[in-house]
Amino acid sequence: MTLGLTDARAAEIRRTAGPNAVRSHRTSPFTVLIRQLRSPLLVLLIVAAGVSAVVGERTDAIVITVIVTMSVGLGFFNEYRAERAVNALHERLRHRALVHRDGRLVSRDVADLVPGDVVELRPGTVVPADLRLTAARAIECDESVLSGESLPVVKGAGDTALMGTVVASGIATGEVAATGAHTAFGRIATGLGERQQQTAFQVGLGRFSMLLVRVAAVLTAGIFVVNLLLHRPFLDALLFSLAIAVGITPQLLPAVVTTSLATGARRLTRLKVLVKRLVAIEDLGDIEVLFTDKTGTLTQADITLREAVPAGDGAGDMTLLYGLLCTGIGRAEAADPLDAALWRAPAARALPADEYRRLDDLPFDHERRMASVLVEGPDGTRSIITKGAPEAVFGRCADVPGTARAVAEKRFAEGGRVIAVATRPAGDAGTLTRADEKDLRLSGLLVFVDPPKPDAADALARLAAAGVTVKIVTGDNPLVARKVCADLGLGTGEVLTGEDVDRLDDDDLRRAIPRTTVFARIGPEQKARIVRAQRAHGLDVAFLGDGVNDALALHAADVGISVDSATDVAKDAADVVLLEKNLGVLADGIVEGRRIFANTMKYVLMSTASNVGNMFSAAAASALLPFLPMLPGQILLNNLLYDTSQLAIPTDAVDEEQLVRPARFDLKLIRRFMLVFGPLSSVFDLTMFWLLRGVFHAGPPLFRASWFVESLATQTLVIFLVRTRRSPFWRSRPGVVVASAALAVVAAGAALPFTPFAADLGFSRVTGAILAVTAGIVVAYLALVELIKTRFYRGRPAPAPGRGPDRHRGLHRRAAPFSVPAPLRRPGRRPPRRPAPSTGPGSAGTR
Question: Which PANTHER family does its entry note (predicted)?
């Protein structure tokens, strides 16, 4: 009987049932636009523009409307582009399922599954829909994503495997009973919405924003009251106060941040690094300790069979034959790398593996560290064959020759990977259980080689130069791991095995980790425990893994990293997916994350100091002058021109010394920078005011035009000084786009009073003498900033590794298709990340 549906029938059902997706990752321009209008200040400005139009102040109304429109438009453009970048990333992270279609077992995108499909489940698979199991063999599912229960649940034929849960061990076949929002997973996800945890950088930006809100509130209220006491028109006082409030706030900070992240995401994609949520790019740059596996990362993952060593007087060919039988007859393409290496061995072609019939099997799991099969030979005799880690198989054997143990130790020390093979007669048994894995007779050892990658040593050196400590966590033998590390020049320090880890309590483990580089024969729970112990030292920890046994550690790490070829559960548990399993690719990603953070902080520091300084100047002038120093529309235009030039900052070059170690969002540094450099710019503004009134006797239009040119020039050109800690500043070359944008905005500001519509903006032509004085003030200001900058940073090295005071580790940043309901969360400092498909069960992608 043909299993499953035909493709034509599946397409027909899908038209009715819809895609197998809980929620689609779609970019809605309307939603993005609404987010741009959430600012209360923007709403007030829109209202103020309407009031101005009603009372006859048409010029103010037009200017405010144009400014608000351009501000919202810039924010919309950049956020919409960032949203589309996120969608593009989700499109790259597809999950597939093995499904029977047209009588064949094929791979399909999980979003294409429909009720009635017949699906095959394997260890490490995320269950793609609610499946009614029709056949099951030793299958256990981790259902903690739904129930919070940590222990896997045993399943049998007739039971239901729930969407979003993970196959911990065993194999099964099931028919799709429900898809998408109709599953138990989907009902929870659609009821919760998309609540995502904030990153530490987002928390820092939030606290920074609150600081500005408090400063703006005090200034706005004070200026409004002062203007009313000076008997200025109520509307003028209101609009001026609102303009001050808007001017003190870096309105385009979200646009700069999203532009930085979107630019970084595109660069990272070219570097073969996919970030599942844009803000995780900042986290990537914070990595200080990296735990990684060995195979495919430090080694080539081009595993070949070196030799089959018989135990005692047996033949090596029989050991190889038994190894082949324990992989699955004729399924070389679906085997793991070690099994595939057996089938590729030249000697395997001459062995009669196809004459044996498989009757039953026990799949490999990381608790037993071995697999077993029950086979019937061509003569009708039945045998149990067990293959796995030598120490695990030796423990199930009735007797192990001393020479076999010696050979295993020697091959391990040489860097080989060793698998033990053992057998025993099965009589007339028709099924196989774990209890049958005993009283075995050792057949021999299979020795594999996996040479180090040629570029692994260089990648390790790059990570070390970036301040990242690399530690190896592997299920392999400690001697093999030590040999690989020695070959690559990675100091091994101490070596801890899984048994060693189990003997240590949490405090002892925390003390042992700094002096340990290799953790060998480590199980899934132990990996997670090691990661948590390292995090307890206050360092940012990343874990790189690609198997189902890595999922717990990926959850526990600050940054979970997987690869595109990893199991579904590993990719879903990760924040970052590498398109190539290479530490060099990861080093590129870390440097890019730090580059983005550095450029974002340039804007934060510069705009805060400049805006605060300008607004202090405006506040002082409004109290001392018989007229407003700038009209509301002029303040907004000044702020918009300045912010527009800063949109080029994400493309700026970054000094090498800013990339050698992680940086922290330091609110104290920002506050100190603001209080030092903000008043400094006000001193020069007040000097300009005195010259304009006392020397040039400037009236309101000339005064406003002159200060407009001077304030725009000072706050824009200071980017060349603030963007680097080097002194003099020309030792750090800015990006071409940044330099061009800054100079173009200054030129535009200087030309504005000479345009035909200058009078409509409230400006008059600026005289040559005033322009010369303005140039002198700008040069003097920049020179003093350079001098004070040198003193400001003296004795302040780049932040040392460790969490700064504003590093909120409890607010973690895991991207998931849904948030687990509070009653279902496990106790801990943060909600756990559970493996849930990013496409298919998690989303349909942008289709």
Answer: CALCIUM-TRANSPORTING ATPASE
| 3-class DSSP state of 545 | coil
DSSP 695: I
Q: Which two tokens stand for residue 116?
A: 């009635």
Query: How far apart are alpha carbons 206 and 214 in whole angstroms?
Result: 13
Report the alpha-carbon distance of residue 317 to residue 261 in Å, rounded.
Answer: 57
Distance of CA 430 to the CA centre of its chain: 49
Report helix, strand or coil for 173: strand
Tell me what pLDDT residue 119 has.
92
The token pair that represents 346 in the structure block: 């030249």
Rounded to 5 degrees, what are φ and ψ at 370? -160, 165
Other Cβ atoms less than 10 A from the Cβ of 109: the count is: 18
pTM: 0.68
Give the pLDDT confidence of 694-736 residue by residue, as tens digits.
999 999 999 999 999 999 999 899 989 988 988 888 899 999 9
Q: Is the peptide bond between 734 and the residue preceding it cis, with omega within 30 degrees of 0?
A: no
- Answer for the pair 778, 746: CB distance below 8 angstroms, yes or no: no
Contact 764, 720 (CB under 8 A): no
**212-273+591-793 and 304-401+411-449 agree in CATH topology:** no
Question: How far is it, in rounded angstroms, from Cα 66 to Cα 78?
Answer: 18
**pLDDT score recorded for residue 818:** 25
Does residue 630 sit in helix, strand or coil? coil
Quick check: helix, strand or coil at residue 634? helix
Tell me which residues of the chain have a pLDDT lower than 50.
1-2, 24, 191-196, 329-335, 798-847
Q: What is the pLDDT of residues 99-154, one digit of tens each?
A: 999 888 888 888 889 999 999 888 778 888 899 999 887 788 877 666 555 567 88
Contacts of 205 (CB under 8 A, 6+ apart): 253, 257, 665
6-24 residue pLDDT tens: 888 888 898 888 888 765 4
Return the amino acid letter for 534: Q
Q: Which of 480, 482, 486 is nearest to 457 (CA)?
A: 486
- Range 304-401+411-449 has CATH code 2.60.410.10: no
CB 586 within 8 A of CB 543: no
Alpha carbon separation from 19 to 160, 176, 189, 426, 494 (Å, rounded): 20, 13, 15, 48, 51
Instruction: Please compute Rg for the chain using Cα positions.
Output: 33
The letter for the amino acid at 585 is V
223 in Cβ contact with 241 (< 8 Å) = yes
Rounded-to-integer distance, Cα 541 and Cα 529, Å:
12
Query: What pLDDT score does 329 carry?
Result: 47
Domain boundaries along the sequence of the chain: 212-273+591-793, 304-401+411-449
- Give domain 212-273+591-793's CATH superfamily: Calcium-transporting ATPase, transmembrane domain (1.20.1110.10)
Query: How far, CA to CA in Å, does 139 sit from each of 97, 116, 161, 339, 434?
Result: 17, 21, 10, 21, 13
200-229 and 234-248 helices, crossing angle to 10°: 160
Which sequence positions are flagged as catalytic? 293
How far apart, in whole angstroms, are the C-alpha atoms of residue 687 and residue 689?
5
